[in-house]
Automatic annotation (TrEMBL):
Membrane topology category: Multi-pass membrane protein
InterPro entries: DUF1232
Residues annotated as domain DUF1232: 88-122
Entry keyword set: Membrane, Transmembrane, Transmembrane helix
GO annotation, cellular component aspect: endomembrane system
Protein location: Endomembrane system
Transmembrane portions of the chain: 83-102
Keyword Cytoplasm applies: no
Pfam families on file: DUF1232
Annotated organism of origin: Aequorivita lipolytica
Protein name: DUF1232 domain-containing protein
Lineage: superkingdom: Bacteria
Principal place of residence: membrane
Amino acid sequence: MLFGKKKDKKPSNIAMMDSKVNEDYVEEKVTKIKDEDVEIVMDNEEAISKKLSNAGPLRKYTELGKIMFSMLKDVKKGSYTNVPWFTIATIVVALLYVFNPFDLVPDFIPGIGYIDDLAVLSMGMGWIETDLHKYLDWRLSGGEEA
């Protein structure tokens, strides 16, 4: 799980911003996502959405967050099934990472606190962009499975 575990306080945390290290970190977390993690995200939708809309650097991801939550809800209801688990897990990792204030670069550090959140959201978006577009097309077509 992404929070609840204390991270090592090594001086190399800032060095984790290297894109390859970050990608490996996120990919490792994605492979460990469970159904319970999806529930944690859904239970904290309001807090995550509030953080996305109130944190200046993350504000541009507010609409993306709404789409991700909408997709998770439709998958959970069983109305949208055309999505690989990797996509759901990526959404969950990205949103849990944003929700966690004590990540690689803690959010309370002025100026750089949201750099890692932006990196994780951007990386995740790159991995699942096609699936998000398919989901939006599905929604626009009336929300019926093909």
